[in-house]
Specification:
five-stranded mixed beta sheet, 32% strand, Immunoglobulin-like, 556 residues, eight-stranded mixed beta sheet, elongated, alpha+beta
Length: 556
């Protein structure tokens, strides 16, 4: 005590300082422990729990009135809280473990910690909704047509319809029976589905079915009677596509796959089946139908769900693996990439642009250009960055590791880093979290001749916030070309090249491998009517390819 007083400060002040120091150290120790205990930010996936809620649903319909009648039995793991959202449905009866309970007002969620099975009876009317429709000719149900349980569930669905109807839902196995003039369908889908995805149902009294088999996978078509002759071609195409994508992405995730014609909706994918809108279905050339795109969604978007809270990665990836690869097989991928760049440049201005991570769905031409066009270009640049073998190895691992989970951009990054052994944070930050389409220019060229060798000094620049760009540079000569790869990571950078011929022109990024702004001379005179599906026809006009400069000219 005396020693403290010798410091010339009152005891209570010294004591208070010690207390403040202790609080400071305690706070930082707790913060450190918290950071250690927090999940790794690179692992943001939502995965199904080991014990999962079982959801059995039986439905029937009053087709003339557009009405659904449903009975649900929900069995949660012991002690697990159930949060049930009825939406606009009307709950008519609720029992818990056999005991009748009051039904909440319409639209309010039910919050239960049940001691046994929960039984729900409900009704709903769907006539003119964009997402749900019930009428005498058929039905399409995909949004809040049954009470949804928060989290993951495993579903069993039984649908009763008038005789002559054929129904499709998510299922590895479908049993159909006829009873008392009615068609009854039992759908078994033995995988977890998150509430953000849910299950769907399509039915029609006009469907003609055809089927075949691919390596134990049942392949089906459900086409309206006038389009039934198209079935053989689509089944053959489906086989070829499954073989192709299994070679790239790993085994097909289901035991059944169906192609279903839709007169109500554009093309879209659900686990185990796809809807093809009639415009897409009637393409004379199956190469430009949406089938490739929707089949890739069976791996990415259906088996590996999109964690929309963290951004939609699946549309860009699916576009790249379907349409881009179609054009790649025809040696026209550079044309396709140019079309993607042109579409982004024409549809997205600085006021409309937002980071790719914030893209959720296509609601406008600008949002589609961000999610699909830029997204596809980002995956192309990632493939160039890590190499072909590592790229597809990572996607195959991603499909395997996150099956039936909601996965994010961060999960993709983590898989690619694990497969390649590289830190790719800069890549995902630059292209997924930041905005901007770099404008690249050739600022200066100088050529020095020494005997038979030529030294070219080149200055490249980019406008805006500098990005790290991998740029192909090609020098054209009288008898051939010489190709180089450079990195432009500053606003302006000098390079030196040695050639054994006198260059006539230099071209930067002639194959459109980088997400960048096109020069006026590169811009195609007319964009393809559908950039994201199928092939892009070559333009017959003489268009400058890449950022070019002649050595006897100062013009780009």
């Amino acid at each position: 005590m005396q020693g403290i007083k010798k410091l010339g400060q009152p005891f209570h002040l010294v004591h208070q300082r010690w207390l403040n120091l202790l609080k400071f150290l305690t706070m930082h120790i707790l913060l450190l422990l918290l950071l250690v205990c927090l999940p790794n930010s690179g692992h943001t996936a939502l995965r199904p729990p080991v014990a999962i809620t079982e959801y059995s649903l039986e439905i029937s319909f009053d087709l003339p009135r557009g009405k659904i009648h449903g009975q649900a039995v929900i069995q949660a793991p012991p002690g697990q809280k159930l949060i049930i959202h009825p939406g606009e449905l009307t709950l008519t009866k609720l029992t818990e473990n056999g005991r009748r309970k009051a039904v909440n007002r319409k639209g309010r969620p039910l919050i239960l910690v049940p001691q046994g099975p929960v039984n729900l009876t409900y009704e709903g009317v769907f006539k003119n909704s964009n997402e749900n429709r019930i009428d005498n000719d058929g039905l399409l149900l995909q949004e809040m047509w049954y009470p949804k349980v928060e989290g993951f569930c495993r579903f069993r669905l039984t649908a009763t319809l008038p005789a002559g109807f054929v129904a499709v839902s998510e299922a590895d196995h479908i049993i159909q029976e006829e009873k008392a003039g009615q068609a009854i369908f039992h759908f078994d889908f033995p995988y977890a589905i998150h509430e953000l995805e849910g299950i769907s149902l399509v039915a029609s009294n006009q469907f003609i079915t055809s089927r075949t088999n691919y390596k134990g996978i049942e392949l089906w078509t459900y086409f309206l009677s006038e389009d039934a002759p198209l079935a053989a071609g689509y089944l053959k195409k489906a086989k070829a596509l499954l073989e192709k994508y299994e070679g790239l992405l790993g085994p097909f995730p289901y035991r059944r796959f169906a192609i279903v014609e839709s007169a109500l909706r554009p093309s879209m994918a659900f686990p185990t089946y796809v809807l093809l809108g009639q415009i897409g279905l009637h393409q004379k050339d199956l190469e430009i139908s949406p089938l490739d795109h929707e089949i890739v969604h069976q791996w990415f978007g259906c088996a590996v769900f999109t964690y929309y809270d963290q951004g939609n990665w699946s549309e860009g990836l699916t576009t790249y693996l379907s349409s881009h690869m179609q054009n790649e097989e025809k040696k026209q991928d550079w044309l396709y990439r140019r079309a993607l760049l042109a579409d982004f440049q024409s549809q997205v201005n600085e006021m409309q642009e937002y980071p790719l991570r914030k893209f959720l769905e296509s609601r406008s031409a600008s949002s589609r250009a961000i999610g699909y066009a830029k997204g596809a270009m980002v995956f192309h640049m990632l493939r160039q960055e890590v190499g072909n073998q590592a790229f597809f190895a990572a996607l195959s691992q991603f499909s395997k590791n996150y099956q039936h989970a909601l996965a994010s951009w961060s999960d993709l990054q983590q898989i690619f880093e694990k497969v390649t052994g590289r830190n790719l944070a800069w890549f995902f930050r630059q292209w997924v979290d930041e905005v901007g389409q770099p404008q690249i220019a050739i600022k200066k060229i100088e050529v020095d001749k020494n005997n038979k060798e030529y030294t070219v000094n080149l200055v490249l620049s980019q406008e805006g916030k500098p990005k790290r760009l991998a740029l192909p540079v090609t020098f054209k000569g009288p008898e051939g070309n010489s190709d180089f790869q450079v990195e432009l990571d500053r606003r302006e950078k000098n390079y030196s090249f040695r050639l054994n011929f006198q260059p006539e022109a230099v071209v930067v990024d002639k194959d459109y491998t980088v997400f960048r702004a096109l020069l006026p001379a590169e811009y195609p005179p007319a964009r393809a009517p559908s950039l994201y599906i199928g092939n892009v026809a070559p333009n017959s006009e003489n268009i400058s390819r890449g950022i070019q400069r002649l050595f006897n000219s100062s013009a780009n």
